[in-house]
Amino acid sequence: MSWVRENCLSFFQMFCIKVVKTGRIPKHVAFIMDGNRRYAKKNSVDNSAGHYKGFDKLSETLRWCLDLGIPEVTVYAFSIENFKRSKEEVDGLMDLARDKFRRLMDEIDQINEWGVRIHIAGRLSLLPEDLQALVSKSMLATKHNNKLRLNIAYAYTGRDEISRAASHIVDGVKNNDLPPEDIDDELVSKILELREAELLVRTSGEVRLSDFMLWQVSNTVLYFTEVLWPEFSIWNLLAAIIHFQRYAPSPKQPEHLSDTKKRFLEKLESQRWQHIEKIVNCSLYA
Ligand code: FPP
Ligand code: MG
């Protein structure tokens, strides 16, 4: 299945989306897509088929998020902890990612038409080289899209992301790009790869964060549902949004960044893009 599913909602479902849209819609929703293997077991298929179903559900969910006008979605697609799973399952998940990122490049015109920007967050160096090149290519190819930003946490944990931000700060101070007095929670938030989410949804009945977006969920509305990820429906998404509308705190006002912070962050951003371009240019697989 392609990355964003064609609209497949009934008239009644579209009507319900319109009603929910009369209330506040979260600007950033994060998903812990859990329960693929339990779904596989329940349906007597292998784990890999469960993960493929999980991807199909992601593509359907992206369609619904576009319809709802949600501008940013983050998904936990592969944790650093997931490397501890069996070799067969890890290889299967890497093959799934290869398959889908190749497909993304084949469908790039359609992705650009939808305005989907892909951002991969995580320790890319832990991935096979060909996959590093594929994900970097998709980030470059969708860099200018602005309708829906899709952050895919891959080879990611929240604590690893915070450790990497800390090492950027140390480098910044050492190189005199960052005055130590500029180090505060606002700066750390901006250095992290993922931004604060307004709503976090976890499927499959688990009620843990599993090292996902630890810094970014300090003020987030959490929604846990029993449904397994491949069975997640538009009704589950609308229930999560209604839960958000009931419990959301008032939106935060954007903070003013000092010029030194701005310069440091711009430099960091440009180094990140240079690194991504280097991966693509140096790869045998690009
Ligand atoms: C958790 O279910 C799911 C994963 C570890 C993988 C999620 C990946 C996808 C949905 C595909 C995304 C792919 C791309 C390319 C973005 P689980 O395996 O923990 O299932 P369980 O909780 O039932 O054991
Ligand atoms: Mg699980």
From TrEMBL:
Keywords: Magnesium, Transferase. HAMAP family: ISPT. CDD domains: Cis_IPPS. Coiled coil: none annotated. GO terms for cellular component: dehydrodolichyl diphosphate synthase complex; endoplasmic reticulum. Its EC number is 2.5.1.-. It comes from Spodoptera litura. The keyword rRNA processing does not apply. Belongs to the UPP synthase family. It catalyses: n isopentenyl diphosphate + (2E,6E)-farnesyl diphosphate = a di-trans,poly-cis-polyprenyl diphosphate + n diphosphate. InterPro entries: UPP_synth-like, UPP_synth-like_CS, UPP_synth-like_sf. GO terms for molecular function: ditrans,polycis-polyprenyl diphosphate synthase [(2E,6E)-farnesyl diphosphate specific] activity. This is Alkyl transferase. One of its GO terms (biological process) is polyprenol biosynthetic process. The keyword Magnesium applies. Pfam families: Prenyltransf.
